[in-house]
Structures are given as structure tokens and as C-alpha cells.
Amino acid sequence: MIPLTPIGVLRTPFATIADCPRNGRQVVPAPLCSAEVFAEFRDGLESLEGFSHLILLYWLEPRGPAALRFTPPFDGLPRGVFASRAPWRPNPIGLSVVRFEGMDDGVLRVRYLDCLDGTGLLDIKPYLPSTDAEPEAAMGWLAPYRTG
Amino acid sequence: MIPLTPIGVLRTPFATIADCPRNGRQVVPAPLCSAEVFAEFRDGLESLEGFSHLILLYWLEPRGPAALRFTPPFDGLPRGVFASRAPWRPNPIGLSVVRFEGMDDGVLRVRYLDCLDGTGLLDIKPYLPSTDAEPEAAMGWLAPYRTG
Q1: Subunit contact B93:A122, Cβ cutoff 8 A
Q2: In DSSP terms, which residues pair with B97 in a beta bridge?
Q3: How far apart, in whole angstroms, are the C-alpha atoms of residue B2 and residue B5?
Q4: Which of A75, B24, B45, B98 could cross-link B114 (Cys pair, CB 3.0–4.6 Å)?
Q5: Could you tell me if A88 and A100 are in contact, meaning their C-beta atoms sit under 8 angstroms apart?
Q6: Counting runs of H as helices and runs of E as strands, what totals does chain B give?
Q7: How far, in Å, CA of B7 to CA of B36, rounded?
């Protein structure tokens, strides 16, 4: 067992699961969200200015046990959870690539989050197009449902 | 404190930290690596065929305490750990976008890993260009050191 500690909290306009969009780019224009980094971790933000996009990792509060297979209502066939971005994973770590619009006093202004208000933040990484961008990637069973 | 459980193990040609490349695309051609998913989690792999790229999350065995600020030897200025992909993070979760070349019996063939052989695998996510690809993203202080 590996212990994690939240480094901050995410603020979004989504108060309930029903409010959350399927992904953070579905709402146009994408609402402004924020990532509030706790005071004791703010030294880690040095030199973050200059990156236009970040990868945020956060804790998807498990609502029920992990399901390895499930049937998405929009699709109707059983799919593996590792072939989806669904939250009921063995390790429920969420990931979003967000647009970064600056920060003040440890509060980062970001867009493209789709998670609940109050979600625990685990990590911030700079987005590097040299290793993270695959614009031509094939989307498998999700291709017919592509948005954005 | 949040508990995590490894779902598998990563196999790479890199036996020591000194062997690891700075990123998984630095060695050309990128060596074939694998992600071995433990038997009890393999049901979660259903429908993974068809995705050309995956996001792997893994546990960067902490070698020493987290450092919020550090001075990269190739740069010489103090940088925040959240503005880097360095392993000494408060929650040492590593992330790689990998090319996916198929699987047999729960063993995925992938390229572009840069981590140690034996690294614990935490999660597999399908890479979705609609939300994950930002080929024009600005790389901040890392721009002069771009490889790939």
C-alpha cells in the first residue's frame, strides 16, 4: 500500500456528479477553474510561469468499489475500465490536461477541468508537447463518441 | 492518507537510474518495453485494442525525501518540482504517454518508457487526442532543452 497526500484542492463550477461534463472541453467557452495549492507546497511552483498547459492529477473520491468491466450507457457494450477514463478504477487517479492562465499566491487559474468542486489535488506536471502530444492517436472504441 | 495498490509491473531495459534516458523518446529507435498486468486486474483490459497510445501512471520509488525546489544540472537555476517531471515529488507518480503495440495474456507491448525495470504500475488510461494533445503548448523554462 502506497500513501498519497493531497497538495491542494480543485475549484470547479460542478457541485454534483450530474453537473460534471463528460470532459472539460465540452462546455464552450470552458469555465475558469482553479487549483489551490496548500501553503507548504508552494515552493514547488517556482518557474511554472511560461508553460501554457499543465497536467493535473487528482483523487477521484471512490463512490463504490472498483469495477474492472462496465457497460457505458452511450455505447451498450462491456468495456474494460483501463480502456476508459471512468472514475471507478483500482487506483482512482484522475488526469486532466488543462490550459494554464497564471497564478497568484498559490492559486492557479486553469480551464478544461471536468471534476467535482473540492477534488483533492495530487500533482502538477508541466505539459511537454515533445513527449505528451500525439494529435494523430487512434481512439479505439471511443472514436465514434469523440467530442472536441 | 490515500492508499494505492500496484496493478502490475513495468519491464524496461533500464536496470539502474544511470541507465534511464531523460525521456523515453531520446533513444532512437525507442526500445520495446512491456507492462505486465496482474491476473486479477486483466478484465479491465477489455477493448484496449484499437488505441494507438496509452497513458501509464506508475510509482517512482522515492529515493530520498521530496524536494520542492532543486537546481537541474543542465540548467543551473532553482526550479520548482511542479514545473518539472523530476521524480522527487510530494506524490511520486510518474506519467508516460506510450505507443501501444498490442497485448497477449495481460502483457502490453509499449514504447517510450524511461523508468526503471520493475517499476510498479498504477493505472492505464486510453490516450485521447481530443483532450490530451496540445502540440503547440509552450514549454516554459524547458523550451531550450527540448528533445523530440
Answers
A1: yes
A2: B55
A3: 10
A4: B24
A5: no
A6: 1, 9
A7: 9
SS3 state of residue B3 = strand
User: Residue for cell digits 492505464?
Assistant: B124
Interchain contact, A24 vs B133, CB within 8 Å = no
DSSP secondary structure letter of residue B141: G
The answer to whether B92 and B17 are in contact (CB under 8 A) is: no
- Tell me how close the Cα of A67 comes to any Cα of chain B, in angstroms: 8
User: What pLDDT score was predicted for residue A148?
Assistant: 66
Residue A15, judged by CB atoms within 10 A of its CB (0-12, 13-18, 19+), counts as: exposed
Q: Which long-range contacts (CB under 8 A, 24 or more apart) does B16-21 make?
A: B16/B116, B17/B63, B17/B116, B20/B114, B20/B115, B20/B116, B21/B114
Q: Looking at the partner chain, which of B37, B78, B131 has a beta carbon nearest the beta carbon of A46?
A: B78
Count other C-beta atoms under 10 Å from residue B15's C-beta: 11
pLDDT tens digits, residue range A64-122? 778 999 999 889 999 999 999 999 999 999 999 999 999 999 999 999 999 999 999 99
Q: How many residues does chain A have?
A: 148
Q: Which residues contact B27 (CB under 8 A, 6 or more apart)?
A: B21
> Coil, helix or strand for A146?
coil
pLDDT > 90: what percent of chain A? 81
Q: Which three cell numbers stand for residue B31?
A: 526500445
Rounded Cα gap, residues B139 and A58, in angstroms: 22
